[in-house]
Each structure stands twice: as structure tokens, then as C-alpha cells.
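look at this stuff:

>
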Amino acid sequence: MLKTDNLKIITSDIKRVRWSAEGKITGPVVIVFIGIHGNEPAGIAAVDLISEQFNRQSRELLGSVYAVTGNLGALEKGVRYIDADLNRIWEVFYSQKDISRANGSKHSAEYTESIEIKNTIDQILAKHKKRASDFIFADLHTTSSQSCAFILLNDTLANREIARKFPIPQILGIEENIHGTLLSYVNNLGYKALGFEAGAHFDEISVKRSEAFLWLLLHNAGVIELEREELIQYENRIQGCTGVPDTYYEILYHKWVVDPEKFEMMSGFKNFDHIERDTPIAYENGRLIKAPVTGRIFMPLYQKRGNDGFLIIREVPEFWIELSAHFRNSFLHRLLKFLPGVSVANRQSFEIDLRIARFLVKDIFHLLGYQVIEKDENTLICYKR
């Protein structure tokens, strides 16, 4: 069981940077977020292990790496958040939707944290932007249930390119269901961004997987070069999900929970477990919740904080992935406005009237690289990623 009492917060010359290593100034820059949720210490422990190894060993750095600490207040208390989920409030920085306030009045403690994290990102970008060959962001997390390792990504071709170098499941389009995340904010800045989920919050294996992921990330990004034996060792460490194909998945259903105190998952569900339609899943306000579709259970909520009760996912055929990559830069975008029920909202988005456009709307727009958000029961907004 992973303990948190020895995870003292460390800072460097840039506030919130727990550890950094700078090498070739024209190389890539990797920025890793750790402890965005205060009850997820595995990423912090993994960064500390890597920093110790860097201190003991001499490695050539072909770029730079920064580990940015997340919710300092929540980490000190060992709780997910103080007032608001730090990984759900980032829409305030790129839309008119301000979800940064606590109890409908004053700004939350997490809003102050997010301002400091944003300033740290800005400082790192300003320091390297003129010379760095690339910027890659990663956010390290753990889950409240047992799980194999997996990657979350907003479905852009650039994100796919870096994510597919890891031999673990890839969950596409998380931003359509979970809004206001730090990774969506980074993607909207125009940079590659991945989320890594290592396993249960306080399992030692979550630290080991997080450490392995970081070494592989630095290698795949071009910051360091791992020996072949090291590469195999770390890839083997993050693998190991019997019955869970190493492929892409899409989200079929998202159970939103208004009051997590009144929501209770049935025991025994693990990430990627097969479930059939009408399988009893949870209770909410004393009412039984059944699976509305067949698929795999994903991120079941076994804690009393958070509004994402569970999701249901399914595999995406490799053919569809390859087809979408081919079509995303094609002339087909210019034809969308002529489809029934489709109107142009602005240069980057379309509005869809589902009373007219009834069939395969999400499939078509996903194929062409659009984020699909429900405006209301009859309307979808499709944004060009």
C-alpha cells in the first residue's frame, strides 16, 4: 500500500516544478502534471524515483523535462479536492463557461491552484518556445478501482501519433464526456497532451507503472534514448491486462452523478470488465441503475467525490481509425454544410438538428475529426479539433 506521509512537496526556481532536467535547448520539451487530484500520489512518487536515478546516473538529455505539481492543498490533506475538482474547471480559460466557483459564490481553492499551474505552463513555454522542436504534455492519474494501465486522449492525429507508441489501451474522445480538463486546455493551446492512468490510487504497482510510463514518454518524445533492454522492461511493466486488447476504445455512455454521496457502485467492477445491457451497476438515491448498452465498464466510481459515476466503452475497429486518419485533411469537410440538418455555426464548428439529421451523425463527424457535444436533446455542436 502506497503511503503519502513522505511525499513532501518540493519546488524549484519555477513555482510548482517539483523536478526538472534541461538538456539540448533545440530538443523536445516534456511537461508532466502530477497530483492534480490530492488522493493520487503515485505520479509524485514515480517522479521522485526518476529524479533520484538521474542524480545517480549520467544520461544524455536531448531535450528537457518538467514535473509540475497539481493540487497542493488537496495533496497536503490527502483528498481529491478542497472545493472543486481541479481537473474539471479549465473551461474558464478558453470559454465563457465559468465553472471555477465554489458554492455558487466565491472562487474555489482550486481556481487559485489552476492560476498558478497556468502561470507555470506559460513560464515553461516562454522559456523554450523559440527553440524547442516540440512540446508534449502528460497528466498522471490513478483510479478508485482496480485497473490495468491505459491512456486517455482527445482524438487528434498528433495525440494518436505519440499515444500509439505505448502498448496499452487508448481511450478516444474523453473530452466529449468529461469537460474542463487540463489536457483539453493544453490541446486548445495547440499542443500534444496525454492522460495516463496507472491503476488503483494507493497500489505500489501504480507507482511502478507511472515510473515506466515516464521513462517511455521521455524516450518516445526524444528527450532520452533508452537501451533496448530498458525499453522492453518498461513496456512489459505497463502491460499485463488479460482479455483487454491493446487497441482504441470509444465512449458509448457516461453516467453523470449529481450527488456522489447518494451514488453507490456495486462491488467488484474493474476497468474494462465486460458487461451486458441491463446488468445491475449501481444505486443512486436508492434506485437501481442498469447498464443501458453492452460494452466494457470504465472508471467506476468507488469514492464519495467526483461526478463521473461510470462510463461504458467499446473497441474501435482498426479500419475505422485508419480511415479517419485518411479523411481528416480531405475535401470532405467542405461538403458537410450541404448535409440535411447541418448548418455552419462558425469557421470551426457546425450545428446539427437531430430532428432532421437522424443517422450516423456522430460517426461521420468523428471520422472527420470533430468533437461532438450535446447542446440539447435535439441539437449537437461539432467542433473541428
User: Anything to note?
Assistant: Confidence is low (pLDDT under 50) at residues 1-11.
